[in-house]
């Protein structure tokens, strides 16, 4: 084997599988955490605007920088109010959620009809049957629709997402959902400053790439046969096929990814205060509500970002004492 060891670590982490293209820009949330407390939505839909630097006093317990001012990268999201276009009621059948009924509001804007073909508001007739279905309901979800015109996006069709309503009592969650049907939902009604959230988004697409860029495979010597930017061997004789663990060329980027525990540093009702003089790169001026998240967020500017209540949050969730947001 020459200078090569008898064994070497594998190329690329299997934790990032699958590496295929995402099916949709607005990712489907596959898991909603258990939430105890007053009814509230467990998710929200926002759009990535840009990044900036935030200076705040670190309040993390047992941190080496506790009590001192630190500088951190922060991502600013455009989070205009979303419209609660409908409600979906589910019942539990043997551990599987089955849809009971779907209620569409009669006050939804006409833009939603561009997205949902054949949509007919049925609020009046469905509300008459709510009392009959109350005993069977095990989970309540809101159908929220974004308002691209408030973000100044170059599209008219809104993005639609199902968001679970969390709480101690399912009946209270149902009453809360009915009270929000056809109305706007603000990000301040879902999250609070200092809370940790999970970010679900589609990463930046990089197209079709080889194994050197995709997996970090070492470039072979100059005198190697056939190729240098490839894998030296794609597997043994047995089994007589190429295993999925072997680095291969293919799609890089545009993957659905979930990043845990991004802290909400600030909820701002006027995004102009957070916008640089020249505007955000490839986004422009932020004129809607804004959310400042600590750290980076997957995707490109103007890409939809799904925020979810943290599935495994840390113990400390104190609002930070922000001293400066660089604009």
From TrEMBL:
<dbReference type="GO" id="GO:0019843">
    <property type="term" value="F:rRNA binding"/>
</dbReference>
<dbReference type="GO" id="GO:0003735">
    <property type="term" value="F:structural constituent of ribosome"/>
</dbReference>
<dbReference type="InterPro" id="IPR009000">
    <property type="entry name" value="Transl_B-barrel_sf"/>
</dbReference>
<keyword id="KW-0694">RNA-binding</keyword>
<dbReference type="InterPro" id="IPR000597">
    <property type="entry name" value="Ribosomal_uL3"/>
</dbReference>
<dbReference type="Pfam" id="PF00297">
    <property type="entry name" value="Ribosomal_L3"/>
</dbReference>
<dbReference type="InterPro" id="IPR044892">
    <property type="entry name" value="Ribosomal_L3_dom_3_arc_sf"/>
</dbReference>
<keyword id="KW-0689">Ribosomal protein</keyword>
<keyword id="KW-0699">rRNA-binding</keyword>
<keyword id="KW-0687">Ribonucleoprotein</keyword>
<dbReference type="InterPro" id="IPR045077">
    <property type="entry name" value="L3_arc_euk"/>
</dbReference>
<dbReference type="GO" id="GO:0006412">
    <property type="term" value="P:translation"/>
</dbReference>
<dbReference type="GO" id="GO:0022625">
    <property type="term" value="C:cytosolic large ribosomal subunit"/>
</dbReference>
<dbReference type="InterPro" id="IPR019928">
    <property type="entry name" value="Ribosomal_uL3_arc"/>
</dbReference>
<protein>
    <recommendedName>
        <fullName>50S ribosomal protein L3</fullName>
    </recommendedName>
</protein>
<comment type="similarity">
    <text>Belongs to the universal ribosomal protein uL3 family.</text>
</comment>
């Amino acid at each position: 084997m020459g200078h090569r060891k008898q064994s070497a670590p594998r190329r690329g982490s299997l934790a990032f599988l699958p590496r295929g293209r995402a099916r949709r820009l607005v990712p489907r949330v596959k898991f909603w955490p258990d939430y105890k407390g007053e009814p509230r939505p467990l998710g929200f839909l926002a759009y990535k605007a840009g990044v900036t630097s935030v200076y705040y006093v670190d309040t993390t317990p047992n941190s080496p920088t506790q009590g001192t001012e630190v500088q951190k990268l922060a991502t600013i999201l455009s989070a205009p109010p979303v419209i609660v276009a409908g409600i979906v009621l589910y019942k539990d059948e043997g551990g599987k959620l089955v849809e009971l009924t779907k209620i569409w509001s009669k006050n939804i804007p006409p833009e939603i009809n561009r997205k949902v073909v054949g949509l007919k508001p049925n609020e009046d007739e469905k509300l008459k049957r709510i009392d009959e279905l109350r005993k069977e309901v095990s989970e309540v979800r809101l159908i929220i629709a974004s308002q691209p015109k408030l973000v100044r996006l170059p599209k008219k069709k809104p993005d639609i997402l199902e968001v679970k309503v969390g709480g101690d009592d399912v009946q209270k969650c149902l009453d809360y959902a009915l009270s929000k049907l056809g109305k706007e939902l603000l990000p301040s009604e879902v999250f609070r400053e200092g809370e940790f959230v999970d970010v679900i988004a589609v990463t930046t697409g990089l197209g079709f790439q080889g194994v050197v860029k995709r997996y970090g495979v070492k470039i072979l010597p100059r005198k190697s046969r056939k190729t240098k930017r490839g894998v030296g061997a794609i597997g043994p004789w047995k089994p007589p096929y190429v295993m999925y663990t072997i680095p291969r060329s293919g799609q890089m980027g545009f993957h659905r990814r979930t990043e845990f525990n991004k802290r909400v540093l600030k909820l701002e009702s006027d995004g102009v205060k957070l916008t640089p003089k020249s505007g955000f790169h490839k986004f422009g001026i932020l004129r809607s509500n804004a959310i400042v998240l600590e750290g980076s967020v997957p995707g490109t500017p103007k890409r939809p970002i799904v925020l979810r209540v943290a599935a495994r949050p840390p113990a400390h969730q104190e609002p930070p004492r922000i001293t400066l947001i660089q604009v």
